[in-house]
Amino acid sequence: MRIHPRFSYNGIPAHEIASFIEGTFPEWERPAILFMREWLNAEETIEVQTSGSSGEPTVWRTGKSALEASASMTANFFHRYSGTSALLVLPATYIAGKMMLVRAMTQGWSLTSIMPSAQPLSTLKQPFDFAAFTPMQLVELNDDQLKLLAQFGTVIVGGAAVSDALRERLISYCDNTYETYGMAETLSHIAVRRLSGQNMPFEALEGVQLSIDTEHRLQISAPHLLPEIIQTQDVVELLSPSAFYYRGRYDRMINSGGVKLFSEAIEKKIEPYMDRPYHISSLPDDILGRRLVLYIESEVPIEEKKLKERITVALDRYEVPKEIIVVQTLERTSSGKIKQIRH
């Protein structure tokens, strides 16, 4: 598969990559090395997998040309072409990390890869033209790290929703950060929105056409990525074939007494009042059909009455949980996301 002559990986130039990746490497670097080996082989397809955030992880093969097309979309949108200095702090096990490698290899970027961690900026001294992070990697940045991040050319944040608290921290220092929308099935993001804008909608990348079904679930047409229309479970407010507001997962929508509630939106509203992991779900109810429930991960008892009083001020009338359930452990996916609780 094509590798741009200006590509480099941790200082290793493109013409030496093939021999370099046949060596031995620390465990944290192996996913990236294995992916580059697979990219360079004679196969026209390559393996990708979902994170498993809404079910069991799924593995399938897709054309390398589709990954290359996705890389070009991002490079064109952000005007990041050959010579771009880029930072890889995401594991190449999943599509976000794989796509950073594909962008670098096909667009001629100079890629620096460091061990993925919860605080990758703690060891950095210089900015980069382009970098991708998960929200978790940015929530605990100190002022000096935020000042460094502000010197980056473009920062994209994805893999989970950006909380209001994180958004406010980022835009207080940076005007270079973008939230992304996408999934493994779309080969990374197909839409972005600038965080510094006031309630900006997601804007589709070039070549992507959007529509909705009768339940307002987003449908994505991107023939250069996949030949068929991608039917998502994401409920959106569609503004045009290229712009939308995200409202929540259809499979996490709770119909309680005829009122449709989006658990993700509720979780985002109460986040400033929570000091431990939590999850909004529902239980069967004889009167309401489903009643809203707040699950909290804690090994010690909590003062449920005081907590309910705190979160109620941030919620609409029907969004207030009918019950708070404390559990010792909330189940997580292999990528660290809290799994949905279904009853």
Q: SSE layout and pairings?
A:
Blueprint: E1 8-9, E2 12-13, H1 14-20, H2 30-40, E3 45-49, E4 59-63, H3 64-78, E5 85-88, H4 95-107, E6 110-113, E7 130-133, H5 143-149, E8 154-157, H6 164-173, E9 177-183, E10 188-194, E11 202-204, E12 209-212, E13 217-221, E14 230-240, E15 243-249, E16 253-256, E17 259-262, H7 263-270, E18 278-285, E19 289-297, H8 304-312, E20 323-327
Parallel strand pairs: 1-6, 5-6, 5-7, 7-8, 8-9, 19-20
Antiparallel strand pairs: 1-2, 3-4, 9-10, 10-11, 11-15, 12-13, 13-14, 14-15, 16-17, 18-19
Helix pairs in contact: 2-4, 3-4
- Measured distance between first and last alpha carbons: 47 Å
DSSP helix fraction: 10-25%
Q: Unreliable stretches, pLDDT < 50, 5 or more residues?
A: none
CATH superfamily of the largest domain: ANL, N-terminal domain
Shape: globular
| Rg computed from alpha carbons, rounded to a whole number of angstroms | 21 Å
Mean pLDDT score, rounded? 92
**What do we call the CATH topology of the largest domain?**
Rossmann fold
The description of the largest β-sheet is: 13 strands, mixed
Assembly state: single chain
Which structural class do the helices and strands define?
Answer: alpha/beta
Helix/strand order: EEHHEEHEHEEHEHEEEEEEEEEHEEHE
